[in-house]
Amino acid sequence: MAGGVVGYRAALAAAAIVPLVFVGIFFAWPVATMVGLGFADGLGGFAEVFARPRTGRIIALTVGQAGLATVICVALGLPIAHVLYRLRFRGQRLLRALIIVPFVLPTVVVGIAFRTLFRGTPLDSSFAAILLALVFFNVAVVVRTVGSSWESLDPRQEEAAAALGASPARVFATVTMRRLLPSVVSAASVVFLFCSTAFGVVLVLGGTQFGTIETEIWLLTTQFLDLRAASVLSVTQLVVVVVLLAVAARSRGRSLAQKRAARPRPIRRTDAPAVILTILTATALMAPLATLLLRSLEVDGALSLHNYAALATTGTRNALAVPVWVALGNSLATAATATVTAVTVGLLASILLSRTPRSPWARRALEVIDGTLMLPLGVSAVTVGFGFLIALNTPPFDLRSSSVLVPIAQALVALPLVVRATLPALRSVDSRMRESAAVLGASPLRVIATIDLALVRRPILAATGFAFAVALGEFGATTFLSRADRPTLPVVIYRLIGVPGGDNFGMALAASVVLAAVTVAVIALVERLHDSAVGAF
Amino acid sequence: MNKYIPIAAVAVILLAGCAPTATDSTTTLVLVTHDSFALSEGTLEKFTEQTGIEVQVQAGGDAGELANKLVLTKDSPLGDVVFGIDNTFASRVVDAGVLTEYVSGDVTDAESKYLLPDGSGGGYLTPIDSGDVCVNVDHEWFTAAGLEEPATLDDLLKPEYKDLLVVEAANSSSPGLAFLLTTIAAYGDGEWQQYWQGLLDNGAKIDASWSDAYYVDFSGPSSEGDRPLVVSYASSPPFEPAGATGALLDTCFTQTEYAGVIAGTEHEKQAQQLVDFLFSPTVQNDIPENMYVYPVNSKATLPDGWDQYPVAEKPYVIDPAEIDANREEWLAAWSAIAQP
How does the average pLDDT of chain A come out, rounded? Predict the structure, then answer.
């Protein structure tokens, strides 16, 4: 028994090292090096940068824009999560997969799709257009994160409350929402981080007039090489993120034990508002996608598959180094590596974070680790990218010319999503189950395998699909780091759009449709595994 | 046994770092460049055939990111040769000590107009390609509207051209910056600000990126928009159906791209050979079709059709050192007018 405890602790310690080393080497160190460079002549930059009237406006706009988009995403995402994960209807699996498509489309392409839709309306180049685009990209985060934990909520509590005479609204507010809160807060913090560091979409739809901290850091670093000011803004960004995460951690709380997973039920009349909202939102999400699809099929005003046939080529006048299909292969291979890395590291982190140590110090340490793992989402990709180049320059970490940096960068972005998707479920595992198993003689690893992993199988599958989608669509870090001979699909799309004439623009649209279709296929496959996993429960 | 899995995972991550570098006797040069770099398959291989030197291309980021990357990694360089430093970033890179002195000996008087002045990169950078950023015009639109096309920067302020022009933001787009420099070169300090106010008053639209302006707002054949004037490249019309669009040759600013040897390379002689190769007709003939700009080498041949499109005789120019010294101030002033 005592040996079991020691072994268990050793396993936990080992589990703790992997995520910390990963985030330490590939995130904290590069960012610290880059920010440190800006403060080489002291901290005088703060007073100077904060004295600029522009700075205050940029911070307010960043927080306001991300905050509003997050509120809208949660308001729309909750009813959709209910419809897609608690109800049962035909085409549900397809809808679940479709809703994630916006999330992986390259921002250049979505920007053009949105601008084509909005051109000539008051929405063109407006603050509202940016908000809509941010919601378009991120509503899937809420739907999937909340949905996968909602579907594993034990429905008997709701049934009991309803039997005792509580109205559906009351049941939702007092029973369901209370138990969903951890995952809602998780999803909302991820969405806020994504929105506050959104770059391409803000630039394309609003231009630099709606400058955010992120676009300003990009401007200062890549155009002006004003590292002092860029570092001040990076630190500001970090502070905003840390404050947000602290608030989130406080309000997240801990969910209660789940004993039985819900069975989805058919649609009832009381679901009407949620179903209508889901239909409306899905339609709105599909509008830019439909524009994309139609334009990809149109050649000289007629319907044609010409753009798709051209994907086997390297574009008009050799726009690309490799045919689009080869780039798709590169994308799938890179994304698979990134997914395995993110899920392995993320799961180890979640297992560790789900423990409740007795010592308050250990609990505090876990909270800090929890927050640290979220930071990659909240820190500028420009800072991380440049940090890679200046920090990872000595063996054994001279990775700058190596092709492993791309999947690592993608995994870094996917890692917080994996943690946020699996942690609420792992935390809801009743620790008495683990103790009982240990008392009955199960080894620590057996406890993790048969209790923790078995109970969080669904969130793990959801997280895997999500991580893969994120890696597949990642563009910022990939274009910054990728090797010319192994371009990924988003990089190729970007290049096709940047080169005028011939088939290139049409090919870019067709390639985007292919990217979307592959994403839907992968997510749908994960959903299938997911359903067959139910039987194993 | 299983408990070693996390340790094995760390080991794999660490080992992955020891990516294959050339271990045998052949030299491998790393060519650092931006994400628009492209050559036909087999072109760089010819260099390897001729010299036995392998080339690994490290591409990423736009021209500005490339320049700043090199400055920041000066103490542990990213590679041996850089291609893609343009005249707006040349003096920053040279002043930071990123490059070692070398200009290809193959550059003759015919190409000397592309050489940079001393103090602005002269002696360090070899010109490779050149392209103009000009206002492009949709000929068909003007024919259909029965309106005479504008020709000069001044014309763009005339009321008959109201709401017809779309430009890129100077602080987020490289052709946008080039067009701002055009106006600064044309009107001079103090006057260009008024010119821009005039452009905006006449309904000029500002987009964030080139693709946005060209594909969404421009009215040309491969676009969907309703504005027949757009800031783009002089090499854009050859990619549209013949005669559909053209460049206004009195509104051009020349962007020239250079190659140089990165200071601290262990293979200086070989790096110089690669710079010479980039300037040689083998690469120069391959440039137009791959990078949509003109080769600088007078011995290079242009692809069919390119000679039908005239180039600007007297494009606007500004000394790179002056650009680097004023970039931030100019952009701040421009931003105050264009993005209040």
Answer: 82
Q: Do residues B109 and B244 both lie within one domain?
A: no
Please report residues of A whose CB lies closer than 8 A to that of B56: 401
Distance from CA of A332 to the nearest CA of B (A): 19
* Interface touch B17/A483, C-beta < 8 Å: no
- What is the fold, at CATH topology level, of the domain defined by A2-253+267-274+305-535? MetI-like fold (1.10.3720)
Cα angle at A142 between A136 and A145, to 5 degrees?
135
Give B28's strand partners: B54
The CATH number assigned to the domain holding B56 equals 3.40.190.10
Asked if A14 lies within 8 A of B35 by C-beta distance, the reply is no
Q: Check whether residue B104 and residue B234 sit in a common domain.
A: no
- Has residue B7 been placed in a domain? no
Sort out which chain A residues have CB atoms less than 8 A from B167's CB and list them: none
Q: How far apart are CA A338 and CA A332, in angstroms?
A: 10
Residue of B12, B13, B286 best to disrupt the A interface, most CBs of A under 10 A: B13
Contact between B9 and A18 using a beta-carbon 8 Å cutoff: yes
Q: Which of A108, A225, A482 sits opposite B71 (nearest CB)?
A: A225
Q: What is the pLDDT at residue A3?
A: 52
Owning domain of residue B224: 132-253+313-338
What average pLDDT score do residues A230-247 get? 88
Nearest CA in chain A to B74: A390
A5 Cβ contact list (under 8 Å, min separation 6) = none
**What DSSP assignment string belongs to A314-332?**
--TTS-SSS-HHHHHHHHH
Contacts of A124 (CB under 8 A, 6+ apart): A115, A118
Instruction: Indicate the residue type of B127.
Output: P
Terminal-to-terminal C-alpha distance of chain B: 64
B320 and B293 in one domain? no
- In the stretch 221-250 of chain B, residues with CB closer than 8 A to chain A read 222, 224-225, 232-233, 236, 238-240
pLDDT, one tens digit per residue, over A296-311 is 898 877 888 888 988 8
Taking the whole predicted model, whether its pTM rises above 0.90 is answered as: no
Residues B240 and B150 occupy one common structural domain: yes
Whether B1 is covered by a domain: the verdict is: no
From A80-94, A227-241, A355-369, the region with the lowest mean pLDDT: A355-369
Segments making up each domain of chain A, as ranges: 2-253+267-274+305-535
Confidence band for B13, pLDDT divided at 50, 70 and 90: very low
Cβ separation A499–B292 shorter than 8 A:
yes
pLDDT confidence of residue B182 = 96
Nearest CA in chain A to B232: A500
Q: What percent of chain A has pLDDT over 90?
A: 15
**Looking at the domain assignment, is residue B14 inside a domain?**
no
* Residues with Cβ within 8 Å of residue A441, at least 6 apart in sequence: none
Residue A428's pLDDT is: 76
Contact residues, chain B, for A207 at CB < 8 Å: 169, 172, 206-208, 339
What's the structural domain count of chain B? Answer: 2
CA distance B54 to B23: 12
pLDDT of residue B16: 41
Residues 272-301 of A with CB under 8 A from B: none
Q: What percent of chain A has pLDDT over 70?
A: 90
CB contact under 8 A, B2 and A445: yes
Q: Is the pLDDT of residue B12 over 70?
A: no
Nearest CA-CA partner of B305 in B246, B255, B242: B242
- Verify that B125 and B241 share a domain, yes or no: no
Q: Compare CB distances from A505 to B72, B207, B215 and report the shortest one's residue.
A: B215
A23 in contact with B, Cβ within 8 Å: no
